[in-house]
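Human: You know discrete backbone vocabularies at least as well as I do. Show me how you would write down a chain together with its backbone fold. No explanation is needed for now; the record alone will do.

Assistant:
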Amino acid sequence: MRVPHPIPYQGSKRNLAPKILSYIPSETQTLFEPFAGSAAVSIATALRKKCKRFHLNDINKPLIDLWRLIIEKPEETARQYTKLWNAQHGNEREFYDEIREKFNKTQRTDYLLYLLARCVKAAVRYNFDGDFNQSPDNRRLGRHPSMMKQDIIGVSNLFKDRVILTCQDYTKILSQAKIHDLIYMDPPYQGTFESGGFRYFQDLDSETFITSLYKLTERKIPFILSYDGRTDNKTFGKPLPSDLRLEKIEINAGRSSQATLLKRNHLTYESLYLSKAVIDKLGMDNEDIHQQELTHQTEMFIM
């Protein structure tokens, strides 16, 4: 079955979701995504019926408002997008700039969906004043309304009456999970704020985040974490403390977009960390986990 994805987001785990799902314990009740973004893992999990309920949270309030509109009013959301998509023809760049300016003043969700569909590489970028400042991709007009409507309705059907939506600090969300739940975390890459092109409204303080991981471990809350990665021999991000007892898995994510532009054959590997509580629920030992890791990497090469 085709997986619906109405919200385009750079860094989305859409293509890696089938691999991540293989590490979700079968008895999981609620899946928490405290850094929801495009909610790719939750969507895939709902489609495969691996969880009963979902909790999507993001510090980006207009994004959560957009999720609420998509889930609760899919037909209206699709109509709003279609109206904006049709209005851009013949004046595409100026129209995009106008909508971006209006969004920064009003935070309207329909404007945000249009901007996400049209901006360069679906990369959410905000300046230091908190304004959306990404440029449009002038090679395309954004997702066609018929396809967008199909995905909006598809996701609404998956999440309707099964999801909680919040805009809170992630630490508050982590405290709500129980031992029969699962937390999937895909936080902002380390150092994105300092680079001036951060994906969220605030940077992730590494000390606070690692302390949160210790607390989850002490409470025996199952969690899966996407945190860093590498391109060939170049590693991104600082290693996590070894006494967290996390099992690190590398998933072959294919060639990086930058390598493709430069006509280089560099492969990107994204790191996935499994908490001990997840490993215990899966009933797998280290050898089983890494054999599955090798299987995933082989499948990516075949594809």
Summary: The beta strands are 30-33, 53-57, 163-166, 182-185, 223-231, 234-236, 247-255, 267-274. The chain is about 40% helix and 15% strand.
